[in-house]
Amino acid sequence: LASREVKPEPSVVAITDTVVIGGPEVIVMAGPCSVEGEAMIIETARAVKAAGAQVLRGGAFKPRTSPYSFQGLEEEGLKLLAKAREETGLPIVTEVVNPETAELVSEYSDILQIGARNAQNFALLKKVGQLRRPVLLKRGMSMTIQEFLMSAEYVMSEGNQSVILCERGIRTFETATRNTLDLSAIPVLKQMTHLPVIADPSHGTGNYHYVAPMALAAVAAGADGLMIEVHPDPERASSDGPQSLKPKKFDALMAKLRLVAASV
Ligand code: PEP
Ligand code: MN
């Protein structure tokens, strides 16, 4: 179902009347790794909107590598995201970590994110395939592109064709970055599938210094959008502070991004 041989023309995923992924506009989803409280999510939502982002991201259910790390505000976090959407008009994307809470998340969220750690959780993929919400599917950290597309098939074969693929870095021998953002996956996926493809240079690099150059490179490589972590006070973030941009740096990146997007 995802193959370009079957459907040659590119698919677009409409989130709202004006936010369309896979169309002519590069769509930027920005916000904190985790929703930490009302003031911070509303402040961040306003800042990313002012900079030109079209979607607010924020984790309420967090799939942490360690069970002792912050696990998210859960339903309270979803409510705060909905409040930030009311305040700013930005649609929201947040992660679903298990089939049991998928319906709850879909009551609040405009896009259901499947994280790298769940990219081959087939029960979860089938569950979101049965819901009527666009799905942002991240590439698992040790998945081939073929396996990534098979995960998209799990969602689509349940009836949900609104799938957005996200390259977020893979595990390699390199330790200078958290993951290795596989930029070549973008043109490869574009050739193999009609689905929109976005990139996440925040998780892809793990270091805020490298986020802007890789964001620009991803758009130059043909990405339909980006997911970028932005936090008002990264030093105090509950998760992923080292890779989070301060609003001012994000604003500067958005200005450069407009130049690159206009020339590809
Ligand atoms: C996230 O978006 O905060 C996240 C956990 O991403 P990934 O699944 O790519 O690690
Ligand atoms: Mn994160």
From TrEMBL:
Q: Where are the transmembrane segments?
A: none
Keywords per UniProt:
Transferase
Residues of the DAHP synthetase I/KDSA domain: 16-254
Protein name, per record: 3-deoxy-D-arabino-heptulosonate 7-phosphate synthase
Its ancestry begins with: Bacteria, Pseudomonadati, Thermodesulfobacteriota, Desulfuromonadia, Geobacterales
MF terms from GO for this chain are: aldehyde-lyase activity; transferase activity
Q: Which residues of the full protein are shown?
A: 72 to 335 of 339
- Keyword presence, Transferase: yes
Q: Which organism is it from?
A: Geobacter sulfurreducens (strain ATCC 51573 / DSM 12127 / PCA)
State which gene encodes it. Answer: aroG-2
User: Which biological process annotations from GO are given for this protein?
Assistant: aromatic amino acid family biosynthetic process
